[in-house]
Specification:
Distance between the termini: 27 Å
Protein name: Oxidoreductase
Helix content: 40-55%
Order of helices and strands: EHEHEHEHEHEHHHE
Organism: Streptomyces bungoensis
Family: Belongs to the short-chain dehydrogenases/reductases (SDR) family.
Keywords: Oxidoreductase
Number of domains: 1
GO molecular function: oxidoreductase activity
């Protein structure tokens, strides 16, 4: 049984909220009483996701946002505050995966793309969230890294460097903002059963059986399990947790 939280009167901002872990987290925030701003580059998906919540009587705002464009990120965060009056929680989840590549053959375009979304997108999102939170003197930010932020895997140098960078952003910013009443942490998901992972399996970039066997728990994680980790980090139950890169990976990094 999952724990329950009461986020009534609070506002959450989630990137990559149109599907997968972002969608599951936005839904979990809303189910716990928060007003939720859902940001995603896919207009159709994010509008459908927000409509599902509002049709259920929950407060939700759809925002079309490309996190590689800082101006779009700033506008999305500002719109959230204009609409709901404040910003209490943020989950910076938007990310992309790239095919495994020999480090000597990696293209500059591929390297720059994965860093633009996975690292610069988190930087821009956190930057503009913190501008509002520091005025309030309160808030909780969770960034999405990966087990790839904690370990190395052959063929994944560029992706893993972007996810290692997220942890660097998280820990340094956490030290800066903890004295101001704002907690910043990261989750490091393992292989999770999301549309992105499904696409990797379909393209032959990932073998599901091997991925399941590589996680000591013996299965893929679910988006809902990642959402529960995010909500806990944003909750009063994690009030003394600062600057952590939390593995949520079925034991992968414990080996």
């Amino acid at each position: 049984m999952n724990p329950t939280y009461d986020f009534t009167g609070q506002v959450a901002f989630v990137t990559g909220a149109g599907s997968g872990m972002g969608l599951a987290t936005a839904q979990a925030f809303a189910a716990s009483g928060a007003a939720v701003a859902l940001a995603d580059i896919d207009e159709t998906e994010v509008n459908q996701a927000a409509k599902y919540l509002t049709d259920a009587g929950q407060q939700a705002l759809a925002l079309v946002c490309d996190v590689t464009d800082e101006d779009q990120v700033a506008a999305a965060v500002d719109r959230t505050v204009e609409t709901f009056g404040r910003l209490d929680m943020a989950y910076n989840n938007a990310g992309v995966q790239i095919p495994p590549t020999d480090a000597a053959d990696e293209s500059l375009d591929q390297f720059e793309r994965v860093h633009a979304v996975n690292l610069r997108g988190v930087w821009a999102s956190m930057k503009h969230e913190l501008r509002h939170m520091r005025t309030q003197g309160s808030g909780a930010v969770v960034n999405c890294s990966s087990l790839g932020g904690l370990v190395g895997i052959p063929g994944r140098a560029s992706y893993h460097s972007s996810k290692h960078g997220v942890i660097g952003l998280t820990t340094s910013s956490a030290l800066e903002y903890a004295p101001r009443g704002i907690r910043i942490n990261a989750i490091c998901p393992g292989t999770i059963d999301t549309p992105m992972v499904g696409d990797m399996i379909a393209k032959g970039e990932l073998d599901r059986t091997e991925a399941e066997a590589g996680q000591p728990i013996g299965r893929l994680g679910t988006a809902e399990e990642m959402a529960q980790a995010v909500l806990w980090l944003c909750s009063p139950g994690a009030s003394f947790v600062v600057g952590v890169a939390l593995p949520v990976d079925g034991g992968y990094t414990a080996r």
